[in-house]
Design a protein that fits this description.
Layout: H1 2-7, E1 35-38, H2 41-45, E2 50-52, H3 55-60, E3 67-68, E4 72-73, E5 77-78, E6 86-87, E7 94-104, H4 111-122, E8 128-131, E9 136-147, H5 155-172, E10 188-189, E11 196-199, H6 207-224, H7 244-250, H8 264-277, H9 282-295, H10 302-312, H11 322-332, H12 364-380, E12 386-388, H13 390-397, H14 401-413, E13 417-422, E14 428-433, H15 434-442, H16 446-459, H17 464-471, H18 480-487
Antiparallel strand pairs: 1-2, 1-3, 3-10, 4-7, 5-6, 7-9, 8-9, 8-11, 12-14, 13-14
Length: about 500
């Protein structure tokens, strides 16, 4: 089952010749791709490997494979008559991108520290963590593959490389030994029952979710570089809706969607960010996006448009990102269009929002930061969780009631906090950061872990499945077999 999750229908189910499993009536519906496997690190160093085109062939050799390419290529070949040395492992031969892999060349990080870094820096949980002789490899598997086509001039590869680099750069802020420069879609260790330290198949996210996340990272980096920003006088207010690119995209009707491409979802999201950064209300933006969507040859549902607009107005983003705008316009307006044709020429950068102390209302992202900082203070004082009334918590953070409710729901969905509301006399809020929970697990022996987990499960009304995904990371080395049973790891 794990192989299907990783390779995503990129290979044949059965061997083309000499299959021991293929039913007589089975016919492969479409052409599939290839991957490369290796039997040792030494063989890998001299490109001595095997071209594999089926799941069945991998399963037959699962016990002896040491390395593989989890992303699927269009074809694989041999350079010699003895069929020992493989070729075809280059970017433009990629058929589909299935996963991002981060290589960590250090044992200074514990598995628990890796998951903490994923939570803190990315907001996404890994699908798989493997342990190697000198470190770890962390897999982030996509929910559906991003397909690479020459029709789009292989732009999916460029976008995916940006996402991959952003993941590595963010994790490097908290982890020792993250390899920033290695091949983004290269060869990785093959998962087996000996090297898996964490596996949760449900931790898979779409390519568009990763695109939106990476766009936010880029925007945040620009905001952080305050010294380089020039604020123009208010009478010369800059608005993204006044840029030429905005109307070029808004008038376009032949924009379509599809996995692995910057399509209609991304265009609607980018246009919505322009409305948001330009000070328009969410209602005005939604109305215009519904109108835009209706003009498309293949429109989205109104519910999908509503969700995209809501995301743009979540205050998690500041404005549409310049380089993504350029990519969208080169995809849908003209492949050779230049920045000078799309943007108003101006000196310096525009800051899209005032400093916090100059604004009457704080954004949701800042309240998140305040609440997580408060929980860190609680942890530093030796408390595991807080029990408070809503009013007390509002006063601590300085946040309105409705915003607090939305904030807690968002943080819980992002897997950053556990919380439970208690009604009636003596009611209030029970709240604990996932980070604190993980640290508490690390500090306890196995026996005490079980008691602690049972207590937390009852306290926050959590299911075994919700806790199990996180707990498996922190079991000691001699309990790895139990981790594998918990997550039902299966490599065929």
């Amino acid at each position: 089952m794990m192989l299907q999750i990783f390779l995503k229908n990129g290979l044949r189910s059965y061997k083309f010749k000499n299959s021991q499993l293929k039913p007589l009536s089975f016919v492969e519906e479409e052409k599939k791709g290839s991957i490369f496997i290796y039997y040792s690190k030494e063989a890998l160093a001299v490109s001595r490997g095997v071209v594999i085109t089926s799941i069945e062939a991998i399963e037959e050799q699962a016990d002896v494979i040491t390395h593989w390419t989890p992303n699927v290529y269009r074809y694989g070949e041999y350079t010699d008559e003895k069929r020992l040395v493989v070729k075809g492992h280059f970017e433009k031969n990629l058929r589909q991108i299935n996963t991002f892999v981060v290589d960590i060349d250090s044992k200074e990080n514990h598995q628990g520290e890796i998951i903490l870094a994923c939570i803190d820096q990315l907001g996404f949980m890994p699908t798989l963590i493997l342990e190697s002789d000198f470190g770890y490899q962390v897999y982030f598997v996509l929910s559906t593959p991003a397909y690479v086509t020459n029709k789009s001039n292989f732009k999916v590869i460029d976008v995916a490389k940006r996402i991959s680099m952003a993941i590595r750069s963010q994790l490097a802020k908290q982890l020792v030994g993250v390899d920033i420069g290695c091949n983004h879609f290269g060869i990785a260790r093959f998962p087996n029952k000996r090297n898996i330290v964490f596996y949760e198949s449900e931790n898979r996210y779409s390519f568009s979710e990763w695109i939106n996340w990476s766009m936010k990272q880029a925007v945040d980096q620009k905001i952080e570089a305050k010294a380089k920003l020039v604020v123009f006088p208010e009478k010369k207010e800059y608005r993204q809706v006044d840029e030429p690119w905005f109307y070029l995209l808004l008038r376009k009707a032949d924009i379509i969607g599809g996995e692995g491409r910057l399509g209609r979802n991304n265009v609607i999201f980018t246009l919505s960010l322009a409305y948001f950064s330009s000070g328009y209300s969410q209602e005005t933006c939604a109305y215009n996006m519904f109108e835009f969507n209706e003009r498309l040859k293949e429109p989205l549902s109104e519910k999908e448009v509503e969700t995209i607009v809501k995301s743009a107005y979540s205050s998690n983003y500041q404005a549409a990102r310049r380089d993504f705008i350029l990519e969208l316009c080169q995809e849908w307006i003209a492949s050779d269009i230049q920045e000078k044709e799309l943007f108003i020429q101006r000196r310096g950068w525009w800051k899209f929002k005032k400093p916090r102390n100059q604004r009457k209302y704080n954004h949701q992202q800042e309240w998140k930061t305040d609440l997580m900082s408060y929980l860190n203070q609680v942890e530093a004082q030796g408390q595991g969780y807080i029990e408070s009334t809503r009013k007390e918590l509002q006063e601590k953070i300085g946040i309105p009631t409705r915003s607090l409710d939305r904030l807690l729901k968002d943080l819980k969905k992002e897997n950053k906090v556990f919380y439970r509301s208690k009604r009636g006399k003596g009611g209030g809020i029970l709240l604990m950061s996932v980070r604190t929970f993980l640290k508490q697990c690390l500090r306890r022996t196995r026996e005490k872990q079980q008691a602690y987990l049972s207590h937390l499960k009852d306290l926050f009304s959590l299911t075994k499945k919700e806790l199990g995904m996180i707990v498996a990371l922190f079991l000691e080395e001699h309990c790895r077999s139990e981790q594998l049973n918990l997550f039902e790891a299966d490599i065929g």
